[in-house]
Structures are given as structure tokens and as C-alpha cells.
């Protein structure tokens, strides 16, 4: 992990001083809607979280499959719809435990990147996990929701590994015109670098997205840049406890020294597991009370 824990800690500031000043990042949406959706993906019963925090959102389909060499490790995602908010979307589960994290890291270190079907190259582990879950039923169910609710906004989210899968999913659905990019809203939490520079560029041309990073979050720095990985824009960085009302800065570059890239070898697993005052996976397992 020392090899892979890079950077992270910098100023806290109200909104931003970048060319993305007009982009509508919404802290309330991130905290009160996208985070509960990300946490719900850790549960085998996502509807409990949806009913607790979003009230009118309904689970459509959950897909959970084995996704690596360790038999107990799984990758998972679910689709949902909300007729009150006029939203459809999906959320991907993050890394389930330390064993799965080891598998992610070793696959990244020892396996070459693979060509992502919609442009650039990504981690083989992330690519395999996304394709398995998407082709395992999530993609078909999402297409059915699009057909049923063609005018609805699309919300996509995920924490940790789930953020990487959400990133790939949004690139896939917009590049293949399953939905127009103007309808898509992507928020991730503690997302690792997902692919190379070309993948980041392809992603940024397809959708506006926000990667929320909690201060010294260790996972935001893996895989490291020296392995030719690059974050896509835009990072929303809080160098604090990022609770309601905390200051944050939005950085407009793919890798920006004003945000988490400013720290070197000063990272924290605890900052990765906690967002907006919640222990993301545990809160989801408990039904998001």
C-alpha cells in the first residue's frame, strides 16, 4: 500500500477558482441523495436505504456476481427509479473488504491495462467487473427504464470501486447514445484512478462529472500516476470532515495540485471509508438510518 498511497491534502475553500465555476455541483445532492444511493449498494436490500433517505425512490434490479479470484468477493450494482423526482439511474457497490482491495491492487500491478470498449484503456480488474455486472442484467434493466421513462434525468453514483464502475458505465451509456449526456448526472465518492489519459479525455468529452474526495482518502491516489493512470475531471475536494456546510474546492484539471494531488505519502484509510459524516459501507448495511 505504501507504493500505491500517493498524495492528498490541500486547502479548503468555498467553491472554486477554475474554469468550471459555472458547473452546478450541488453539495446537497451529493450529501443527501447520491451518498445514500452509494451506501445502498453495499446492502443486499437497497430498498431499505432508498425508503429511509430518498422516500419515493424504488429499487428496480440488483445484480451481484463474483468478480475476482477470491470466491467470497463480489461486485454489485442496482438500478432504481423515482417518479416523484423524475429520475432513473444506478449505483455500484464499492470494495467489500481488505481481501478484495488486495485483489484490485495486485491485478492492477501485474496485469496490463485493457482496451475499454468506448475508448482508452482501463484497469483490467475494473473493466472485468463492469462488464460482468453490466452484462449480467444491469444494462438490460437500465435500458428498460430508459424506454419507460425517456424524459427522466439519469443519476449514476458509487463509492470506491463503485466509483470506477460508475465512471465506466456513464462513458458507456453516453458514447452509445443509450441516453444523451445532457441528461446524465455522475457523482462518485473516493473513486480510484480508473484508466489512462485517453480514457480520462474520452470520459470528459462525454459527460460532466464530480469526484468527491475526502481530504487524505488513500484510494483517490491508486493506481498511481507513474503507472500511466489519470483521473478525469472534476474533483470536489474537502480538506476537512466534509460534513454539511464544510468548505470545499472544485478543481478543473484532471490532476490538480490544489486538490488531493497536493499531498504525498500522507493518506488515510479512514478518510476513504467516511464521507459526509457517514461510514459509507456500514451505513448502507444498516439500512441508512
Automatic annotation (TrEMBL):
<protein>
    <recommendedName>
        <fullName>Fungal lipase-type domain-containing protein</fullName>
    </recommendedName>
</protein>
<dbReference type="Pfam" id="PF01764">
    <property type="entry name" value="Lipase_3"/>
</dbReference>
<dbReference type="InterPro" id="IPR002921">
    <property type="entry name" value="Fungal_lipase-type"/>
</dbReference>
<feature type="domain" description="Fungal lipase-type">
    <location>
        <begin position="90"/>
        <end position="225"/>
    </location>
</feature>
<dbReference type="InterPro" id="IPR029058">
    <property type="entry name" value="AB_hydrolase_fold"/>
</dbReference>
<dbReference type="GO" id="GO:0006629">
    <property type="term" value="P:lipid metabolic process"/>
</dbReference>
Amino acid at each position: 500500500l505504501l507504493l500505491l498511497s500517493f498524495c492528498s491534502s490541500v486547502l479548503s475553500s468555498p467553491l472554486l477558482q477554475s474554469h468550471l465555476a459555472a458547473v452546478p455541483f450541488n453539495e446537497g445532492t451529493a450529501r443527501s441523495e447520491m451518498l445514500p444511493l452509494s451506501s445502498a449498494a453495499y446492502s443486499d436490500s437497497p430498498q431499505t436505504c432508498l425508503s429511509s433517505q430518498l422516500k419515493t425512490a424504488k429499487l428496480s434490479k440488483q445484480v451481484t456476481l463474483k468478480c475476482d479470484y477470491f470466491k467470497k468477493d463480489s461486485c454489485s450494482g442496482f438500478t432504481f427509479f423515482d417518479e416523484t423526482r423524475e429520475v432513473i439511474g444506478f449505483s455500484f457497490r464499492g470494495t467489500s473488504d481488505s481481501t478484495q482491495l488486495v485483489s484490485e491492487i495486485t491485478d492492477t500491478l501485474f496485469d496490463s491495462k485493457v482496451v475499454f470498449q468506448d475508448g482508452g484503456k482501463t484497469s483490467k480488474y475494473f473493466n472485468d467487473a463492469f462488464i460482468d455486472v453490466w452484462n449480467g442484467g444491469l444494462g438490460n434493466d437500465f435500458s428498460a427504464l430508459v424506454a419507460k421513462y425517456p424524459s427522466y434525468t439519469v443519476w449514476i453514483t458509487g463509492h470506491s470501486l463503485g466509483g470506477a464502475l460508475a465512471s465506466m458505465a456513464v462513458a458507456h451509456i453516453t458514447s452509445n447514445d443509450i441516453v444523451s449526456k445532457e441528461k446524465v448526472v455522475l457523482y462518485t465518492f473516493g473513486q480510484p484512478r480508473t484508466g489512462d489519459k485517453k480514457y480520462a479525455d474520452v470520459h470528459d468529452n462525454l459527460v460532466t462529472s464530480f469526484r468527491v474526495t475526502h481530504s487524505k482518502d488513500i484510494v483517490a491516489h491508486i493506481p498511481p500516476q507513474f503507472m500511466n493512470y489519470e483521473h478525469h475531471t472534476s474533483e470536489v475536494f474537502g480538506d476537512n470532515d466534509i460534513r454539511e456546510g464544510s468548505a470545499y474546492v472544485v478543481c478543473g484539471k484532471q490532476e490538480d495540485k490544489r486538490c488531493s494531488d497536493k499531498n504525498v505519502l500522507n493518506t488515510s484509510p479512514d478518510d476513504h471509508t467516511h464521507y459526509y459524516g457517514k461510514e459509507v459501507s456500514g451505513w448502507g448495511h444498516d439500512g441508512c438510518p
